[in-house]
Write a structure and sequence with these properties.
globular, 434 Repressor (Amino-terminal Domain)
Length: 83
């Protein structure tokens, strides 16, 4: 079983890494995806409780990546590093 934090999940969000690699701001991504800065910030900081598949699809289209590039499941405490 994957380790869980106080919020009940072990999903790690790598949006910050992808944005840095593409030299894109969160505000630019939000505009291109069609969601608010606040919603993307919640996702980026790992505080989101859910994400719509349509939003995930649009993020992947804009960043030219796959869902697994954005989200991973931490399987041990040592899995917290960047992808």
């Amino acid at each position: 079983m994957a380790p869980e934090e106080g919020d009940g999940h072990a999903v790690v969000v790598h949006l910050d890494t992808l944005l840095r690699r593409r030299e894109m701001t969160l505000a630019e991504l939000a505009l291109r995806v069609g969601v608010t800065n606040v919603n993307l910030s919640v996702l980026k900081n790992g505080r989101a409780k859910a994400i719509r598949f349509s939003t995930l699809t649009r993020i992947c289209e804009v960043l030219e990546c796959q869902p697994g590039d954005i989200l991973t499941v931490r399987t041990s405490l040592s899995d917290e590093g960047e992808r």
